[in-house]
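Forwarding these from the shared drive since the link keeps breaking.
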Amino acid sequence: MKNLIIISVICLASFSMIACNNTNKSASNSPKDSTGTNSAGTSNPAKSGVDSKTTAAVKEMVGNYLNLKNALAKDNSADAATAGKALSEGFMKFDQSALTPTQKKSFTDIADDAKEMAEHIGMSGGKLPHQREHFDMLSKDMIDFVKLFSAGQGLYVDHCPMYNNNKGADWLSETKEIRNPYLGTKMPTCGSVKEELK
């Protein structure tokens, strides 16, 4: 009986040490902003330092992204191309002068890829499958973009489990109601809300 108690105590102590080490590893591997807060988290103090000009630009870009998402949900390739071009231009003319060094670095990391994806969508009118491939990658960047600056409105991160041979894909939506941009009018309500961003 005494041996059983000792073994239980050793196992419990080992489990606690492993759990703590894993928590510390994941925390140390996550990118942090200048305040030490995880930049991938839903609450980022960098948002509070955003000026009104930046906020207006972010709102406009998120609006173009949502127009793109809604066009794809309706299988409207031409409107998706128009919104893609507008979003790409938004990334090109985004004024970074009021950003902190940390915000600038994060923005550059996001913008380099997102601008290219939006550009491809803009040049691919009439090619819905191709636009949706780029929208998948663009959405990852836009989720990070909104977490960095905030959108000035409530948004949802939605998930489609069936897209890309059941690998799944996420997107941002302004409504809780699912309108799937990856499967369009074929399966408009396929998906679920994964996260709410404020």
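-- next protein --
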Amino acid sequence: MNGRPVETPALDLVVGAYLHQDWPDECTDEWAALEAFLTREPMRARTLSSEIDGLLRVRLSEADLEEFLGDHGCDYFADPASGGNRAWLTEVSRRARAAATAAQQ
């Protein structure tokens, strides 16, 4: 993958600080790691879904998405049988959007 397709500071924080190599020691699963981010980083959490949506609009291949995530410190590996990184990122975006909506109410 050449260059950075979009700026993703919130996503970079999620994958680099919450899904780093030791994340399984700190969280029960990837969704608990995401919940920790959403709770601890509410300002950044508000932009996470739009960042992911922008990244997915670039239409990177699955291999490019894996490279992008790995380059940003992610040590979570999405299950290819469940749709891989694209499906996982879509669900992360959905959950982040729902959390941001709930926080506004």
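The chain has one domain: 22-104. The chain has a mean pLDDT of 90.

- D.
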